[in-house]
From TrEMBL:
Start-end of Low complexity biased regions: 93-107
Organism encoding this protein: Arthrobotrys flagrans
Principal localisation: endoplasmic reticulum
Protein name per the record: Cytochrome b5 heme-binding domain-containing protein
Residues in Cytochrome b5 heme-binding domain copies: 5-81
Keyword Electron transport belongs to the record: yes
Classification via SMART domains: Cyt-b5
Membrane-related topology note: Single-pass membrane protein
A Pfam cross-reference name: Cyt-b5
Length: 137
């Protein structure tokens, strides 16, 4: 017998947009990443930028590793039941613009964006290496 998967509406997800309760949609799946917010290598602000939203584009634009995707899978709570009126996925530029408070800037300049992505990737790699060392010790 197959396990029934819970379905969430976009309104259900949108109600969880605080540090204490973060739901995010990635590829039509709903994740409760509240317990991971303090451990996220990119910092809590990155996650809060997409809290309660569809973060698929932001997640993919960063280029998360297979290990990051494996970690994400632990927080899966169900599928998104999307309607035509639901907002589209958040892009990196919109998330960055909203976090800086300047939505008229249209996002970060190219070099800042590149440095930010590299820093997040390096932080993620370092974090995962530490986790593997601790697990094997």
């Amino acid at each position: 017998m197959a396990t029934e998967t819970k379905e969430y509406t976009y309104a259900d997800v949108a109600a969880h947009d605080t540090k204490e309760s973060i739901y995010v949609v990635i590829d039509e799946k709903v994740y409760d990443v509240s317990a991971f917010v303090d451990e996220h290598p990119g910092g809590e602000e990155v996650m809060l930028d997409v809290a309660g939203q569809d973060g698929t584009e932001a997640f993919e634009d960063v280029g998360h590793s297979d290990e990051a995707r494996e970690i994400l899978s632990k927080y899966l709570i169900g599928n998104l039941k999307r309607s035509e009126s639901d907002p589209k996925p958040v892009t990196i530029s919109r998330a960055a613009a909203s976090s800086s408070g300047d939505s008229s800037s249209g996002g970060l300049p190219g070099i800042v964006y590149a440095v930010l992505v590299a820093a997040v990737a390096a932080g993620g790699y370092y974090y995962l290496q530490l986790q593997q060392q601790q697990a094997s010790a």
